[in-house]
Amino acid sequence: MIISLEQARREIGVRQRFAEERNLGEFAPYVSDIIYSSASPRTTKGTILMPAESSKRAGSFYYIPGGKSKLWVYASTFNHDNIQTESDFDSVFVDHECFHAKQNFRAVPNPISAAFDYTKENSFLELIMHNLIQGDKVDILNRKTEIEAYQHQLAKIESGERDVSRGLEEEIRLDLDYYINLPKEANLRFLELIDGVIR
Ligand SMILES: [Zn+2]
Fold first, then answer.
1. What residues pack around ion ligand 1 (CB closer than 5 A)?
2. Which pLDDT score is estimated for 58?
3. How many degrees, rounded to 5, is the angle at CA 69 between CA 67 and CA 70?
4. Residue ranges of domains in the chain
5. Rounded distance from Cα 158 to ligand 1 centre (Å)
6. pTM: predicted TM-score of the whole model, two decimal places
7. Is 23 exposed, middle or buried (0-12, 13-18, 19+ CB in 10 A)?
8. pLDDT in tens, 151-186
């Protein structure tokens, strides 16, 4: 019998099977393992709530193409207010996280090019300061990959291929805005910091 999200929300023991039963479609060749974890997600970004992640620990760095990714799915995915249906789950798990697996496999875009783009919009000093002091270089370096993943997720919704709940769609748009505005926000924080040092 196919496990429903409703059942997986109730019973921890079937969550691994539920995740394995998802149809990854075109992304299947880029995924090595699917792992349910009762731990908290490794990343704790203030505004971002995507409670699943793809990992390159399966054997590739960003810079080396051809590595399959592990997909992690957490308890918080099953307790998430905006993940109410199988389609909501697949939007996060397949359209977003598996999209990252494909990015990882192709090694584009990578953090070096992302950092370079950041310095074109801002400055190298700001990138260094932001990374050292703000401590969220992950956001800056992942900016390009996140924007592409959220845009892919939204394209599926807008084309009607993925019918998600309104709360999830709003959350995706907020997360996308967060990444689009990141250089500006990072600059503001940088200026505040400099101001604090000067005074
Ligand atoms: Zn992402």
1. 146, 149
2. 35
3. 145
4. 5-198
5. 19
6. 0.79
7. exposed
8. 999 999 999 999 999 999 999 999 899 888 877 766
